[in-house]
Amino acid sequence: MYAITIPEPGGPEALVWNEVPDAVAGEGEVLVEVVAGAVNRADILQRQGFYNPPPGASPYPGLECAGRIAAIGPGVSGWSVGDEVCALLAGGGYAEKVAVPAGQLLPVPKGIDLKQAAALPEVVCTVWSNVFMIAHLRPGETLLVHGGSSGIGTMAIQLAKAVGAKVAVTAGTPEKLERCAQLGADVLINYREQDFVEEIGKATDGAGADVILDNMGAKYLDRNVKALAVNGRLAIIGMQGGVKGELNIAALLNKRAAISATSLRARPPAEKTAIVAAVREHVWPLVDAGRIRPVVDRELPMSDAAAAHRVVEESGHIGKVLLVTP
Q: What is the rounded CA–CA span in Å between residue 142 and residue 207?
């Protein structure tokens, strides 16, 4: 089979479409013939040499894919060869085939093109696990999403609106904010021109955001705490703005607030299985009903993953960038 390899860490040109040994389904796994994968920020970090796959995972980048089951390993039930699926991966999505633990498979929802289903697993599992399973966003509360036009952001908007929450977003251009509004965002904040702490205060009559989904990390830490409501919850899922910040514990105590920080890739298979099961129970009916949709910016050939990485690094996209196999 062919896969995107990284002979040496570096820029987008470090991604090389090479012939590699075939993937094989092991105990509790299925082999998926990949139709499409999707680009995530974690893939860029791996390409740069900063985010190695967890032990036992495929060495190739790619944290989600969609395709058809080509083979079933020992100990797997409930799936058949030929089933159309999408999958949450620890790696290996930038390839023609990938072995996937059966607990990390999802059926392709009704009305969703097989290729576009590749845009769902990582973002849905990330948003559902952080915003709902950990931060417990409830109807009537306010969610602030940083990077509202990203793959994560576009999914967070839709899911929060589906449960009856109010959504505020930050983004860097009017075009991106307009797309967020089309998805249901109530409060639009251009972070290049506006202070999100002030704007979220205005939008909530001074109360603040009940939940903040943050991809920036250190750069926004102090301001995020200021933007939180009493009993607010800050969910950190990225570190695009650095890894070390100063935290005002007194401000956190005064607000009786909580901070969580998670990554999805390195979680044990049992935790991923639980998250995928929750997504299938709570989110997939919304997708089947047409209330949630993947937002895809463009599709590019998987062999030209370098071009896809350039698009994501330049932040000119809205939603997900897909990689389609030959």
A: 10
Per-residue three-class SS string for 131-157: HHHHCCCCCCCEEEEECCCEHHHHHHH
Question: For the chain, how are helix, strand and coil distributed in percent, rounded to 5?
Answer: 35, 25, 40
Structure tokens, 66: 């969609």
Cα 265–chain centre separation: 11
Query: Distance between CA atoms of 320 and 117, rounded to whole angstroms?
Result: 11
Angle separating helix axes 151-162 and 174-183, nearest 10 degrees: 30
b vs e for 151-179, b when ≥16 Cβ sit within 10 Å of the residue's Cβ? bbbbbbbbbbbebebbbbbbbeeeebbeb
pTM for this one?
A: 0.96
| Residue from 137, 159, 136 nearest 148 by CA | 159
In whole angstroms, give the CA distance from residue 127 to residue 292: 13
pLDDT in tens, 297-310: 999 999 999 999 99
User: What is the Cα–Cα distance from 115 to 86, expressed in whole angstroms?
Assistant: 9
Express each pLDDT in 139-165 by its tens digit: 999 999 999 999 999 999 999 999 999
**Host H or E run for residue 18:** strand 16-19
